[in-house]
Amino acid sequence: MSKMLKPKSLLLLMFALVMAFTTACSSGGDNSASEKEEEKPAEEVKLTQDQPGWQVDTSPITFDWYINFAWFPNKWGEDITSQYVTKKTGVNLNLIVPAGNEAEKMNTMIASGTLPDFITLGWYEDAVKKMIEGDLVLPLNELADQYDPYFYKVSDPAKVSWYTKDDGNIYGYPNASSSPKDYEKFGDNITSNQTFLVRKDMYEALGSPEMRTPEGFLKALEDAKKMFPDVNGQPLIPFGLHDFHEKGNSSLEGYLQNFLAIPQDKDGKLNDRTTDPEYVKWLKTLRLANEKGLMSKDIFVDKRPQMEEKMAQGRYFAMLYQRSDMANQQNALFANDPNSVYIAVDGPANSNLDQPTLSGPSISGWTVTLISKNVKDKARAIRFLDYLISEEGQRDTYLGEKGVTWDTIDGKDQFLPEVAQLLNSDRGAFDKKYGASHTFWMLMDTNITPAWAPPAVEPFKQLEDWTRGKTESFSQFDQLDPDASSEEGIINDKVMNEWGKILPKLIFAKTDAEFDQIWNGYLEKRESLGFAKVHEYRQKEYEENVKKLEEFLQ
């Protein structure tokens, strides 16, 4: 999920060097499986769509799998679940994550042509297009045709259509993807990550104040600061957000706009949500909050590690933040004092006090996984990918091994009690010991897995339940931005960088008049950079998306 989704918010392990790839990719031991596959053509095996191709060959093979998220901490083969998957399929994974800047690492690999066997990265990354256009990754449909027609049985036609390029090929398969049809099918089971959070004990001590209007919001922050000036000797932070970066702050963009229920389109035309009067009104509310000393300087400089430390200490009174990204901190607070956790409440709203329109999983999902042209064994690679996206693979990676981590209890496939207990009490320890429940989320299908998930417990249940019925599919608004190297993409990048500069200035403005001056200057600059071209480009993409999705809404 922030792109989410935001989504968790999840990813994999430390990145060795380009040399590690070349060594692994050229090692004689790994090539033996490839040679063996060549000696036994797929035609002779006579695979059908109904036969899981991975069952044909379960001899040992190790694939290098790169995950483009520096924070991903887990290693394959150290936990019960990944050991089970390797024992069953023969496939071992050498998980690699970048040690520093993800974009730099991807660009280095692309430039040198040294891509590992599998690559997982956000669908929104420029590197996806670079790999496809650079002819560095293989079409999944061609691999399926040649080695494993099972792909067509286990893949979702809507997702395949969505990710099929103009050349008729699909190069990457998404995780955490939900089509508009899935929203019809799964209804209120689909939840959002977007929440307005308050510290339970403080909020209740203030009398559970209304915070939907600018006046109520400001009064609650003021009262919290007066009643709780510090938390364990450290100053209270009245209002927390995602971190500020060079292109803005997601809490103050999509999150806030969704809470204000600002429409993304009107009469088939994209709506410029940034200029919506309701949105500007709330930005001015935050300016006033800063003038009143309610916007701590910390929130403008802190990055994720500092924020997590402060969350675990309960130093924020309120936050506009993604709920799943603070699970460990919630657990720590809950263990110390169940009343000190964060709960979701109705937050900033528009003048009509309309219910928020929160962003749920979209058809684009969160990440895509691609298979490199350098892959050491094409047949085993596509067959393993097909296994992972099948219901069997989803069950194996989510629940683990039957009788070891799960069983059928009261007619439901579910974790054994001691496994569920660790999942709910210490997620980090659970990942290391059991490796289940989306520890390895690269191809997780979040439409299938809730059937096996243990019921949500506090302190997480309330947050999740609060989003039910408020979550919407915004798939048609996905993937609208132009390619970074195009004329429109270059303009868009400049506009976003300009926004990143003025957003803090708007909040720091000493008066509304100064705010207006900065705001109007931004709109003029945006126009002079050529933003109209970007808007025109995005409108065309949006119309194409609507057409693509119509087929699956019949």
Description of the structure:
Pfam families: SBP_bac_1. Keywords: Signal. Residues 33-47 have a biased composition (Basic and acidic residues). It comes from Paenibacillus vortex V453. This is Extracellular solute-binding protein family 1. The chain has three domains: 53-186 and 364-464, Periplasmic binding protein-like II (D-Maltodextrin-Binding Protein, domain 2, 3-Layer(aba) Sandwich), CATH 3.40.190.10; 193-359, D-Maltodextrin-Binding Protein, domain 2 (3-Layer(aba) Sandwich); 480-553, no CATH class. It is built from 25 helices and 17 strands. The two termini are 28 Å apart. The chain is globular, with a radius of gyration of 24 Å. The strands form six sheets. It has a five-stranded mixed β-sheet, with helices on both faces. A four-stranded mixed β-sheet has the order 8-11-5-12. A two-stranded antiparallel ribbon has the order 6-7. It has 554 residues and is an alpha/beta fold. Helix 4 (80-89) runs antiparallel to helix 19 (391-399), helix 7 packs across helix 18 (378-389) and helix 20 packs across helix 21 (427-433).
How do the strands and helices of this protein lay out in sequence?
Layout: H1 18-26, H2 28-39, H3 42-45, E1 61-67, H4 80-89, E2 91-96, H5 102-112, E3 118-122, H6 126-133, H7 140-147, H8 151-154, H9 157-163, E4 172-174, H10 180-186, E5 194-199, H11 200-205, H12 214-227, E6 230-231, E7 234-235, E8 237-240, H13 254-259, E9 265-266, E10 269-270, H14 277-291, H15 298-301, H16 304-312, E11 316-322, H17 327-336, E12 342-344, E13 358-359, E14 367-371, H18 378-389, H19 391-399, E15 406-409, E16 412-415, H20 417-425, H21 427-433, H22 461-467, E17 471-472, H23 487-508, H24 512-529, H25 531-550
Parallel strand pairs: 1-2, 1-3, 8-11, 13-17
Antiparallel strand pairs: 3-14, 4-14, 5-11, 5-12, 6-7, 9-10, 15-16
Helix pairs in contact: 4-19, 7-18, 16-17, 18-19, 20-21, 23-24, 23-25
